[in-house]
């Protein structure tokens, strides 16, 4: 057994395993024959992987992983290793050398760190940046001024020039993180749909998988009754939910990244009535999903702007903003709220939003806060704290309700706009709808009070 293996084998869903971004072998080649062999004989040699958050990265077995995905294999046996970044690179070089010679360029990339006396991360980041094609570099005149971190993020989408150009245009602005997160979210949604499609395609799935009807809402055979999308849960949870609903058929819609549910049109009146109720519920679910997407996107945009602009605001304006944000939150919906010590930020009260706005790692946030709140630049930190708490309180439902939180959203936007923030068109539209709903609710409440007083 290699020194880079363990005795423990774990069965892992292929949708949770990613190729390692630092794999020295850039081209895994054609895996058609290997996929056919694995489909016939099974995977004879487990993969070697390392944890990456809630997912995994391949150390040994990139071709086997690609072949398993090509063959529709849902789960594969894996050795789960605990290796540092340099150990991971060394293990991948060793594995490739043992199986098949690396190209001269790949071997040079793996060893250049030692020759330059630089860290492996330093060299790998610059190799990735150097791989960006001329077409993408030409998309802006000051491409060479983009930071190395943003260049690495752009290089990650090699072979997708449109996405690389989109990221390049956002580089150096407060919208870069938002754009990158949106692209990453699109990728996760695509992977989710592909995983669900693979599970539905299993011979024993017991679910009727059909092509999308050409006329989805007027097809003579199928009636639309609902859909599943990534927020439904893991691919496995989505399959279980589909089984519970027991539709006559399902189809995969790759454009919307959803799974559509269908019933036959020759059902009884009761079944049609149930289908209508299901369709209405699906529509409500779709609206909620769209609202969740909007709420996440608008929060990302606001916090990215705060991160990129607060340190450039004059001190007297920050002091004024601190007072306004404090007054906006003086009646705290959380009975404990601000009375809790800052140490509670480890698991609640806005630590994630604060680290996004400030750019400070969560483990350092508390110490930095305690230091700066006693320093001359306290105002910018106070604004970051108070803005983070408001961002933490806002939920998707607050955009359509008249709760204590929703009533603060218009005031929060006014404060941000006074700092220089410019809402996008969709934010303005949602904000106008929210203000109208609050005005209507206040009007109804006043009418009810007048009737009670008569």
Keywords:
454 residues; alpha/beta; Conserved hypothetical protein from pyrococcus furiosus pfu- 392566-001, ParB domain; 4 domains; five-stranded mixed sheet; three-stranded antiparallel sheet; 17 helices; 54% helix; globular
Verbal overview:
The chain is of the alpha/beta class. It has 4 domains: 1-119, Conserved hypothetical protein from pyrococcus furiosus pfu- 392566-001, ParB domain (Alpha-Beta Complex); 131-172, no CATH class; 184-288, no CATH class; 313-453, no CATH class. Helix content is 54%, strand content 10%. It is built from 17 helices and 8 strands. The strands form 2 sheets. It has a 5-stranded mixed β-sheet. Strands 6-8-7 form a 3-stranded antiparallel β-sheet. The radius of gyration is 27 Å and the shape is globular. It starts with 8 loop residues before the first strand and ends with a helix. Residues 100-109 and 331-346 have low confidence and may be disordered.
Q: Could you give a quick summary of the protein structure above?
A:
This protein has 454 residues and is α/β, with parallel strands linked by helices.
Secondary-structure map:
Layout: E1 9-13, E2 17-18, H1 32-41, E3 47-52, E4 55-60, H2 62-71, E5 75-80, H3 85-99, H4 104-116, H5 120-130, H6 134-137, H7 148-155, H8 161-170, H9 176-200, E6 222-228, H10 235-245, E7 249-253, E8 258-264, H11 269-309, H12 315-328, H13 351-358, H14 362-372, H15 378-393, H16 409-419, H17 425-453
Parallel strand pairs: 2-4, 3-5
Antiparallel strand pairs: 1-5, 3-4, 6-8, 7-8
Helix pairs in contact: 1-2, 4-5, 5-7, 7-8, 8-9, 9-10, 9-11, 11-13, 12-15, 12-16, 13-15
